Amino acid sequence: MQLSKMQLIFWLGICGLWVNSKPSIAQSITGNFSPFTLDPLAYATVRPASPAVATTRPSAAVSLGDLASEEMALEQSPYTPIDACACGCGIFDVGTESMLPQGTGLTVYFEYAYQDQNINWSGVKPASSADNDDKNIRTSFFTPGIQYMFNRSWGIQAELPLANRHFETTGGASGNDIVDQDWTTIGDMRVEAIYDGFFPDQSAGVTFGLKLPTGNFRHNDQYEDIDRDSEIGTGSTDVLLGGFYRNYLTKDQRLAWFAQINLDIPQLTQDQYRPGVEADGALGVYLNGINFGRVGVIPIVQVLDGLRGHDSGPNAAYPVASGYERVLLSPGVEIHIHPLMIYADVELPVYNHVTGNQLVGSNLCKIIVSYQF
Question: Which element (helix H / strand E) includes 52?
Answer without folding.
Answer: helix 51-54
